[in-house]
Amino acid sequence: YIANRFPQHGHYIPQRFADNRIISSKYTIWNFIPKNLFEQFRRIANFYFLIIFLVQLMIDTPTSPVTSGLPLFFVITVTAIKQGYEDWLRHKADNEVNGAPVLVVRSGSLVQTRSKNIRVGDIVRVAKDETFPADLVLLSSDRAEGTCHITTASLDGETNLKTHFAVPETAVSQSVSRLETLQAVVECQQPEADLYRFFCSLIRPLGPENLLLRGARLKNTKEIFGVAVYTGMESKMALNYKCKSQKRSAVEKSMNTFLIIYLGILLFEAILSTILKYTWQAEAKWDEPFYNEKSEVERNSSKILKFISDFLAFLVLYNFIIPISLYVTVEMQKFLGSFFIGWDLDLYHEESDQRAQVNTSDLNEELGQVEYVFTDKTGTLTENEMQFRECSINGIKYQEINGKLVPEGMTEDTPDSSSREEELFLKAVSLCHTVQISYDQPDGLGDPFSHANGFTSQMEYYASSPDEKALLEATKRMGVTFTGISGENMEVKTFGKSEKYKLLHVLEFDPNRRRMSVILQNPSGERVLFTKGAESAVLPYAKSGEIEKTRVHVDEFALKGLRTLVVAYRLFSTEEYKEVARRLHEARTALQQREERLADTFSFIEKDLEVLGATGVEDKLQEKVQETIEALRLAGIKVWVLTGDKHETAVSVSLSCGHFHRTMNILELVQQKTDHECAEQLRRLSRVNFGRSADHVIQHGLVVDGASLSLALREHEKLFMEVCKNCSAVLCCRMAPLQKAKVVRLLKTSPEKPITLAIGDGANDVSMIQEAHVGIGIMGKEGRQAVRNSDYAIARFRFLAKLLLVHGHFYYIRIATLVQYFFYKNVCFITPQFLYQFFCLFSQQTLYDSVYLTLYNICFTSLPILVYSLFEQLVHPHVLHNKPALYRDISRNAILSFKTFLYWTTLGFCHAFIFFFGSYILMGEDTSLMGNGQMFGNWTFGTLVFTVMVITVTLKLALETHFWTWMNHFVTWGSIAFYFIFSLFYGGIIWPFLHTQDMYFVFVQLLSSGSAWFAIVLIVVSCLFPDVVKKVFYRHLQPTSTQKSQKLDRCTEIIHNTNLPAFYCAGALKLM
């Protein structure tokens, strides 16, 4: 009910509609704690530590519950704070939208309220350049004809001005007082996500052209009034919010695999310890020694329960082999590390003032693992800035020279005599479009014809595509100028003479027809249809004109890389037009199957055409596209171009941008009509020689069109993939948006499971961006939909090289080392605890004090690896950028392979054995090493092992560090210093809240022994010396290409800093 005027009498049941609040947040203040805890404990490591903590609370375990509870609490708290902060930002954005001021008609006047207070049925007033706060049916505008112009760039990426129409019966209600007296009922369908489908009834049937969508913006119209029909989360914009599928990186998957392996090691150690304990206790003297007699309850307790209790106790004792703080450190590294992309000035585009942006930090390391890049062409490889170059009129090719159409082969000085065909062609181009004109005036457009004499400095074309804008600007230069639409009239100035055409119908463009048409009444009263579209969508429906010559010219334009459109027309007799008008009216007012009926009607109208000619528009390449594609190829990354352009245009652009080489053998899978044809062609292609010729590798490129691709994917996926993988470059043309996503999915799910990246700038690229492992949006001229749905956004295609080759390389190296190091230091930490059980009859006596157990991962060893994972650079960024082949060193998850994982784990066990047995051999046999004759106890022994371990694992990371900053020095040496200071402080005071004072004065006594210092130095050197030898040996005898580049980079730096002659580094350079 408009203005919420419900019937006073009768059986009306009030309906419950959604309020107008938009909610993009996950949590509320009430459900944050339970919901966040539920999500966090779905992680296997967190849930495992919760179980361990509960076990410690329920049974008598060797370590305090604090040792598991405090790290778990720390991890849960840090993660909750991070997620809470991100959700607070979402709440903040929601509140800005929901609290925006709007004007609503209530009680006969305009009342200002907040957007969230709009109800279904409210009449809302929207002014120029404001966004619509809900889905509105247009009631009236400040124009007499009841139209308004809007732009929907934020919804579907289309930047053109679209015309929407008011309900004719309400269009005259342009004041609040008249709207207040309006009594009517709107009946509409249930809310649905499709932006282009809308059926409702308000006095008469209404369609999408009467609906103003939330998020769209009012342009060139002073004000409009509309009635709210869908609000809040039921608006079409909200229903289009897509929950992006959670993308997980290869590193995270490897991490989970390693976690399961370590869980297996933990269970093995706990079971072995339990079995050995009972084996040892089979002897009576060890089962119940004189100093530890059992109570009656213990003697009579169930042996099975005792076995389970002991197993759980050992599980608690060894549980720190699972690194709980790994997850929180990885999250912090990803979150903090993502800022470097936004701060990188090399990824800043000065002209548009746009920085690179990170929409999800979870995939940073995936940038270093990409094997396939799928790219759109228009707006991604090209500028999406169109320039008119050539056209074909009546079978003759023309070029534009200084604003004149000149036949091919003629010069500019040729006498200027426009033929009827030329004039008709230019008029068709000037009239067949959906372009709107903006005049630079504060009060909107007004009457465009009033600007007829002075429009040049004030008017600007707004087009749905850059092609249309380029064509209109070209016809304007050639003397035929479109000057605007007023009501039902379109005006063109033809060589200075003004002509008005009555606009009868617009047959809108759609992707299936690939053409659009207008039906006009010319000044002489004739009804004429002008059509333009792809040559495959227009020429088959033509019956006259220079059809064959135009087809040849279109192919020639395409070979030059031009975007082509064919223009045609048709004159209607009075009877034909009546039939056309009747069919259109029936189709547009149909309440059922409206789209199908409209498609049939359009097909009936757009036939028997006479070809006028064709246009060729150039879309110039972006800067450094060729160099970027070549760099990606050298890095071992295959580039696929997926475009909607025609075959010849796409191939030409592929050649000009370096995607295809001139020497490349181009294979084609195009124009396949049947499954059998497609299969035969694929078999022929698979038999092509993909090997080497006598002197070089034969490179192949494959061209596929959309229709052939559909056939290939239906029955012959395996054969198609085999051909594709043997090609250096693949070009898919005439692609629909969903086909792009299908191609990406095909590669993703192939047996090799390669990492894929999709990059595009338009709404039609969103599906492939969301499908790929990594999606990148280009901040282009086709709206922001691709950017909003991407994982990363950059301003230009050339920035992709640095994003992958430099940032991707760094992120992968850093996080891969972080994961390996975490497992290594936890093996070093807990293995001595396991070995100690052999010397204490598996009595579950802990080797370390519980405070050390708690703080090892939180304080003593956490900061050095975090800082390393933020700043480490194996090679200088310029070297990585200039030597793309270095990217191959880290491909296929090389640093997190099972081999390297085994190396780090074995190294951890070796170091742990050296810590334990080194300390035991040096100090275990002679326990009275202190000057006053006092003996070392088990806490002193455990503290010695712990001290050696903290120093060794910290210095091990220092050995792995190549790029030292002041922060690396501070946290590396600071962590060791903090451990010593903390231990002195902790052991130097009697803490009243501790049950036992086991560590009192232990550390001071340990450091007062010269033997202890000797043992610390000897054990640390014994652990790290083999590492140093191995590094030197491999670096000199089997250097990787990355290590060679490091050496070259170091040499260059020495020469630069010391001004030495280059021959001083000749020996090093010979190794390159």
Structure overview:
Component of a P4-ATPase flippase complex which consists of a catalytic alpha subunit ATP11B and an accessory beta subunit TMEM30A. Mg(2+) binds at residues 376, 378, 761, 765. The strands form 6 sheets. Strands 15, 16, 17, 20, 21, 22, 23, 24, 25, 26 and 27 form an 11-stranded mixed β-sheet that branches. Strands 13-34-33-32-14-28-31-30-29 form a 9-stranded mixed β-sheet, sandwiched between helices. Strands 2-1-3-12-4-10 form a 6-stranded antiparallel β-sheet. It is built from 37 helices and 34 strands. Helices cover 45% and strands 18% of the residues. The radius of gyration is 37 Å and the shape is elongated. The termini are far apart. Helix 21 links the parallel strand 29 and strand 30. The chain is an alpha+beta fold and 1072 residues long.
